[in-house]
Amino acid sequence: MVNVEKDIREYSGLELAYIGDAVWEIKMREHYLSFGYSIFKLNKEVKAKVNAKFQSLVYNKIIDSLDEKFQTIGKRAKNSNIKTFPKSCTVMEYKEATALEAIIGAMYLLKKEEDINKIINLVIKGERNGNF
Question: What global pTM score does this model have?
């Protein structure tokens, strides 16, 4: 269990991204599970949303609308000392994806479920309207 006494600023950007990555994936899985897709289709849909390229797009769409505290968390994570990068995206996309995951992680630890759901709903709405 997470130490609730620990101030969110005491977590590194990468620690927040670590938990945020898991939260993001479970939220995407929950969303697509509701469609009754086959496991193959579920994996395909979730993989399309749980990757650095897509998460970078989401980060760039939401960052300016976030509370200053979460903007700061995102910037801190984006500037973290990340040593390895996948070949499937650019370095900047990976850094922005890490920033999004850190923001989601911080929201999760701060029990800001409504804020996480706003971001998820933006993705869902964008998906329906062809904006992602």
Answer: 0.91
